[in-house]
Amino acid sequence: MLKILGRRTSANVQKLLWQLVEMGIPFEREDYGGEYGGNKSEDFLRLNPNGVVPTLIDGDAVIWESNTILRYVANRYGPTPLYPADAAARADCERWMDWQLGTLNLTMTPLYIALIRTPAEKRDMAALERLEDKAEELFALLDRALADRDYLGGHTLTLGDIANGMFAYRWYELPVRRGGPKPNLKRWYDRLTGRPGFQQHIMIGLS
User: Fold this and answer.
1) How far apart are CA 138 and CA 31, in angstroms?
2) Alpha-carbon span 86 to 71, nearest angstrom
3) SS (HEC) of 104-142
4) Which of these, 14, 144, 155, 178, is most buried using a 10 Å CB contact count?
5) Calpha distance 52→68 (Å, rounded)
6) Residue ranges of the GST N-terminal domain (predicted)?
7) What is the pTM of this model?
């Protein structure tokens, strides 16, 4: 059985848990990181030298980096529509995974930390305002991208949606300015909230 090392409140762990539900793959999970610690121990660092979560153990294989783990699971336990076999469709999926990691993450992670994990008296309000503005800009981009499609990859859920969907939940739940209406984004988000894996592992509150 797959073993996941990482706390369920980690956004990167949540992506993986959601995927496993979508694919019907059983797993075990152990709490590491955050308030649980353990991710800087010698044993953990032998598995993942970065000391971050999640780390996936699959028999003799040890995989780290969250989006790499998503791809590994899809390849190892697929085929699955979450990771299309067609080259163009797979590239469409992967570019949104890369966008989440290299673009959206750079705004949403510090925004989340500032609002949820930083005491109000210690917040940099000017920096927070810039992050709010940037997040609104990025979700407006997603709204435009979803104008002619149900999901980021077309009409079927893919890993691109899983990678970005967990941040969409946080953005809708955070006390931030969200700008004008984003109807395409909202329709997409409402589709995600109807999926059992999203309900079970993403919609768990902010902490």
Assistant:
1) 31
2) 15
3) HHHHHHHHHHHHHCCCHHHCCHHHHHHHHHHHHHHHHHH
4) 14
5) 14
6) 1-81
7) 0.96
Per-residue pLDDT tens for 134-179? 999 999 999 999 999 999 999 999 999 999 999 999 999 999 999 9
Rg (CA), the chain: 17
pLDDT digits (tens, 9 = 90+) for 9-48: 999 999 999 999 999 999 999 999 999 999 999 999 999 9
CA 35 to chain centre: 20
Cα–Cα dist 27/143, whole Å: 34
With left for phi above 0 and alpha for psi between -120 and 50, is residue 118 left, alpha or beta? beta
